Amino acid sequence: MKLFVGLGNPGVKYANTRHNIGFEVIEALSNRWNIPLDIAKHKGRYGKGVVQGEKVVLLQPLTFMNLSGECVRPLMDYFDIEIDDLVVCYDDLDLPSGHIRLRQKGSAGGHNGMKSLIQHLGVSSFSRIRIGIDRPAPGIAVPNYVLGTYSKEERALMDQAVQWSVEACEAHLQKPFLEVMNEYNRKVSS
Predict the structure, then answer these.
(1) Are 154 and 105 spatial neighbours (Cβ–Cβ below 8 Å)?
(2) What is the CATH class of 2-184?
């Protein structure tokens, strides 16, 4: 069983903000795989299904970003999901808007949602899809920037990044994450 997690903040106030791009990937997977996110449990919203013969769980933690681990760890325990079967999608200030970068391990890189996950999982070696949102212009505070919405130009780049992230998740159903990583890390939005 594979668990795909998208990090974000719950509620209409945060919809379509840069910090919620992980939620967007999970919603896109939900639509593509026809798996409704209709179960509220373990401080999250999730759905279960079978895709290409593989059992999958799609999860959006509802704990707010900084407490994401409080949702993911209990759900992994409940379904007995191994760390190798976890893929986390989230926003990254250190990548240009619309770029994605897949990794099998790494630090939190200053991302509070990832800090929470690493703390609650007890490891930093799990698969992740980092989705670039770029850095704010000088004079704009990072919290205001990540909780802000996209320009029209950025939105087009982010739609492409969501599509690539969805494709990478789907490819991982049949291929090891390292193979998927080698294929999708070459893609660049323009």
Answers:
(1) no
(2) alpha beta
